Amino acid sequence: MRNSRIRWTTHSWNAVYGCSKISAGCQNCYAEKIALKYKQTPKPWAAKYAKENVLLKPHKLKEAYKFKAGERVFVNSMSDMFHEEIPLDYIDQMFALMLDTPDVAYQILTKRSEQMLQYMQNPSRFDKICDEFRKMELVQKRYGTALENRISAFSWPGNNIWLGVSVENPKTLYRIDMLRQCPVKTRFLSLEPLLESLGEINLDGIHWVIVGGESGPGYRPMDHSWAREIRDQCVEQNVPFFFKQSAAFHTERGTSLQEEDGTLSDWEYFPKPGFSYRKGADSVNHKVCDTQLSLFAQ
Ligand code: SF4
Question: Which of 211, 244, 259, 274 is most buried by a 10 A CB count?
Fold first, then answer.
């Protein structure tokens, strides 16, 4: 059963709690609100408290083995996978477990595109990931003498790893260029909370676009024309588009996109090899959502 209410995913896997704010999109961070409410992190998520707030949860690493084939898992939804305070060895361990569960699609979203690019382009990354895997007690127990055999089945980067960047305004569009340089099979954009028109976006090498307005107390407005402008570029370039929500107090309230003439339409497409919009399609296509995962499995 899914453990996430976010419609573009089915589960979350949080082996890190805590983050620090780095751009305008972080202003009303939902994860910070939850973490402070439940005392999961000690201080507000300002940069000066990052060392105290970014907390590793190694006991949660084993949860990777609980997910079932075909599930979509949002990795570190309560943090940022490439936060400077998360040790690279620990990120390697998380990637190793993702490679070891290739039938699960892992959705990794970051605002720290510089660190992501550096990590993904390191030529010795795969060796480091394998070394970390060898050292983990959890996998030593699981595989015993078959451990090296298991590692020989890994490929880097796995087909099941989806890498994405958040972009909220034109100033942060540079993150897309960095994502494009990352050698992964599925690259996606979370344009949420959308705070301004983004104008023309380079969608080369991008396989999925999610758009949404902000939610919660003090939410900032999103003009539907900004979302339509993105949707139109996606349709023109055949990139699956997912409209998550309007700007609203409640999360995922107003999940339809308002057209110029006031009519509403639902857009819930997911990435899929050979994706193509059906002629005249302007409504929810759950079939795409249901079938795409097996196509990404190795
Ligand atoms: S990067 Fe993400 S998790 Fe971190 S503070 Fe910003 S919005 Fe919150």
Answer: 211
**Residues 117, 176: Cα–Cα separation, whole Å:** 11
Mutate to test the pocket of ligand 1, among 12, 20, 23, 26 (most ligand atoms within 8 A of CB): 26
Strand bridging mode 264-265 / 257-258 = antiparallel
Question: Crossing angle for the helix pair 125-135 and 113-121, nearest 10 degrees?
Answer: 90
Q: For residues 208 and 18, what is the distance between their CA atoms, to the nearest angstrom?
A: 27
pLDDT attached to residue 279: 54
Question: What's the 278 CA to ligand 1 centre distance in angstroms?
Answer: 35
Please state, in angstroms and rounded to a whole number, the distance separating the CA atoms of residues 206 and 217: 32
According to the model, what pLDDT value does residue 212 have? 96
Ligand 1: distance of its center to the CA of 276 in Å?
A: 32
Positions in the chain whose pLDDT score sits under 50? 280-298
Q: How much distance in Å is there from the Cα of 207 to the middle of ligand 1?
A: 23
- Which ligand 1 atom is nearest residue 20's CA? 5
